Amino acid sequence: MKGTNSESNEKLNSSDFSTLHQNDWMLISAIKSKDLVSIDEAAKLSKLNRDAVLRSAFTLKELKLIEIKEDAKESFNITAEGERFLNEGYPEQKVAEAAEKGTQIEKLTEEQRRVGVPWALKNGWIDVSLGKLKLRAKPKSYALTEGLKQIKEGRVPDKKVLDLLISRKNATMKVSKNYEIRLTAEGKKAAEKAKEKPSSEVNELTHEMITSGKWKEIVLRKYNTEAEVEKPIFGTQHPLTSYIEKVRDIFVSMGFEEMEGPEVESSFWNFDALFTPQDHPARELHDTFYLNQPKYVSFPNDVAEKVKQAQESSWKYSWDPNIAEQTVLRTHTTPVSARTLVEIAKKKKTPGKYFVIGRVYRNEATDFSHLAEFHQIEGIVVWKKANFRHLIGLLQEFYNRLGFRKIRFRPHYFPYTEPSLEIDVYLEERKQWLELGGAGIFRPEVTKPLWGDYPVLAWGLGLERTLLLQMGEKDLRKFYQNDLHWLRSNAVLKLKQ
Ligand code: PHE
To answer: pLDDT higher for 42 or 102?
Structure first.
């Protein structure tokens, strides 16, 4: 219990102490004629247990009725290893003895070599040359052994020795707190009032008291509703989840429908349907996770026929369906757009605006700015009249709604879009542009086989990076570490508001 704030202290102090618990009153009465008493003594006098005394003492301290004197006592103990070194001697002492006999290093035990030699060297006891130990000076006594003896006798060794013993884990330190309490002048006044308190004060109203009508006779203790209590730890959404919802809300409010697609995908949808040639470097293992189970996955033949034609007439090679069958973890969310184009063409559901927020996988080494698994925000506008200005306007609107003011577009290259662009956001504090994602207009070679018409505006944007920026964090891995302390921290909660 942390106590009350000063405003409520005053209120309570000037009132009749009606929020005090019976234990508090018992403690006050028990120690009223004493000077400083220990918690154990107070427990004996008041017939309360130690915890109850402590709890009451701290409540009463906040109300300035009790004064608490705190003194921390350090005590030291020898560990099992310390005990062994005390009995057998330290490894470095053994090494010094061995050095006296001119022993070879390899004759030493593992511990003597690992622990003893470095310390013996550091202490200036030995020299080592050509694998042989040579004695420089043999110590008569060793400060560490003396220190351990002192601890054993209940004495406190010299600070330097003590620190070394603790850092070598030969001894441990325990800090125990001792409290002594006494009433303040205010507390003594309260003790006088204690006599007037009705002895039958009740803390809790029970069902039985109500039904029996006994409630009419009892005196209920008042609650202190302003007492500070421990912060409750409650479940909240993970910041990534709330952010995904926020992004989803933005697209829905802009009239977009959500599309769906699998994370385990065929190379066909991940690459081929997106006009990516079968020998494109992005397909190679350093970027793409290929799966062994299932190793192959099918795709619709009718669509494949059209994709094959588009690829063969442009790339002048023979398109191989076996390569398209290989299973991958999708490397981007654009295959969902490709699938959606086929679906809405079938249902004649064009024009239309679609989005998806999904996980993607890339075979990359992870560090603070790279993850092998992250989310993309994908979208398409399927509309014969759509143009490049619509694309820029949409992205600008999206990022504005997300809270980014200054963004820019740069020309770029993707196999499936023309023109293609990259989107950057400006970071005021760092005076720096940061890349957020790619976009463009799907080429006719993509849209004709899938939808049968042209054009389609498309984009794929990183999710984690923008969230990281908005949280003022630096390390992308934070989102995947499940660090409870961080998840409960203000940074995360602030984001929700
Ligand atoms: N798929 C691209 C990427 O992963 C982004 C993109 C999507 C680019 C749609 C253009 C159109 O980087």
So the answer is: 42
Backbone φ and ψ for 435, nearest 5 degrees, come out as -75, 130
**Domain ranges in the chain?**
5-74+176-220, 77-173, 240-494
- Across-strand partners of 126? 135
Ligand 1: residue whose CA is nearest its atom 10:
439
pTM over 0.70: no
Asked if the 240-494 domain carries CATH number 3.30.930.10, the reply is yes
Task: Read off the pLDDT of residues 388-404 as tens digits, 9 standing for 90 and up.
Answer: 999 999 999 999 999 89
| pLDDT, tens only, 172-196 | 999 988 899 999 999 998 888 766 6
Mutate to test the pocket of ligand 1, among 265, 275, 283, 334 (most ligand atoms within 8 A of CB): 334
Ligand 1 center from residue 432 Cα (angstroms): 22
As assigned by CATH, the class of the 5-74+176-220 domain is mainly alpha
Distances (CA, A) of 311 to 59, 278, 287, 307, 417: 79, 9, 22, 6, 14
DSSP structure string for 334-348: HHHHHHHHHHHHHTT
Closest alpha carbon to 469 in 432, 423, 422, 427: 427
Pocket of ligand 1 (CB under 6 A): 332, 334, 414, 417, 438-440, 458-460
Q: How far apart (Å, rounded) are the C-alpha atoms in residues 323 and 341?
A: 22
Nearest C-alpha neighbor of 134 from the set 92, 90, 95, 91: 95
